[in-house]
Input
Amino acid sequence: MKMILVRRFRVLILMVFLVACALHIVLDLLPKLERRAVRPSGEPGCSCAQPAVEAAAPAWAKARGRPGEPPAASSAAGDAGWPNKHTLRILQDFSSDPSSNLTSHSLEKLPAAAEPAEGALQGQNPGGPRPRDPAHRPLLRDPGLRRSAPPPGPSGDSSLLARLFEHPLYQVPVPPLTEDDVLFNVNSDIRFNPKAAAENPDWPREGTENEDFLPTGEAAVDSYPNWLKFHIGINRYELYSRHNPAIEALLRDLGAQKITSVAMKSGGTQLKLIMTFQNYGQALFKPMKQTREQETPPDFFYFSDYERHNAEIAAFHLDRILDFRRVPPVAGRMVNMTKEIRDVTRDKKLWRTFFISPANNICFYGECSYYCSTEHALCGKPDQIEGSLAAFLPDLSLAKRKTWRNPWRRSYHKRKKAEWEVDPDYCEEVKQTPPYDSSHRVLDIMDMTIFDFLMGNMDRHHYETFEKFGNETFIIHLDNGRGFGKYSHDELSILVPLQQCCRVRKSTYLRLQLLAKEEYRLSLLMAESLRKDRVAPVLYRPHLEALDRRLRIVLRAIGDCVEKDGPHSVLEDDLDAEHRVPPGR
Output
């Protein structure tokens, strides 16, 4: 009797194991079956069901046969090499490393806040008209709005931005670059050698093979994809140059390139997706969570606020207008949640969170620390969702970055205060600590402080630099999603580092004064710059008006420092005699 029970128990265990294996296999096959399923015509339901996805590879991605190699062998080599994208994938990263591009972490998980109702529009954004009925917004803007010419400037010029960038303050060159001052040396680095790339079927190229080589035998940079041109343009002094045409081309790529795969980014408090394009470029996608008009609720702590996709877009444009050029290119985009996320992802955890809402819209929520649940799902209309795409920086294995704790980091606690909030002489302690004691890092922190105050961003806990350049380099302004949350409130505590240290670059101060003039008003420049984006208008009009108001507050703070300590003590003269700005300009 005992033996019979033992045998039955073993059979039961075996059956459970087999059932579990069968379920696992079925779950693995579900995404493929879902893609192949075709709805009968006229069937009611969600209008976003997908036909079979075409698997046509772009022309540049097809493997090239070596000279003398038969076509069959070349085709086989291409098939074998197609899944291996390491050669290019390794060239970019935002990054997924937990120590890089950190996001805010609260010590306590706050209760989920209900999504505030969308308010009625109270004004018209200079960046473009808004729909009259706040309850109904078209999924895509009228293409005519994107092509409309900017309003003429005070002197009749068609572009206020063009006149700004022609100003002497925006013509100051960077020092001559040596091999140690560039992140990648294209001609000597095997990773950018076209002769080696020509033998690699994964290298993206367009046109004929002869276009990859110059008569000198050097790399034909024009044959590189725009994301790679952006990477090889990084140097000790700037993330990209003022007149680099690859930046505008990269912004267009972010908004138009075909998305070939999607995965969730690990870490972080809110959902972010890593999107890969057909030219193997990658970008970080932040979906829309709030409408343009919604302000951060007054009872929200800064570390539990939503991350706004339009803040990432606006931060890039603001950073460029301030001439910092320390924010990676960011563009807005309307994404089809079915074709461009669900059907191309291999992330099972992400795929399983898709569902159809009672309103017959496609929704998903993914996995993250906060706001990743059915109650906080991201829903399309019916399957279109707006978001921002930030270009990846080079992969950490190629260009290591060092993560630094911001000296003026907040406590990220509901009751505790940080040391700088209670010690008025805190800056003196900072200036005695490396790297703030012997480099221009304190001046970089002041630039970042001004940048954050203009946006209203309180979430600057860490920053990064490229390790190759040591301490004599710029700060990368990453993760700006918690900016532009309140237009009716100016958070003066963000300016404390400037008020405590009373140090700022003279070039920064002069540019701020220029942007405060009526003929170069910051809000008008931002409106013109943002108008080019695919999801314009990016900012609600009161946010643009808040920029002008906050700029005056920054200038008053610097003026108070100059009155107290004198201009020579406050303003670091970084303009040589050759590039002095003429009086009155």
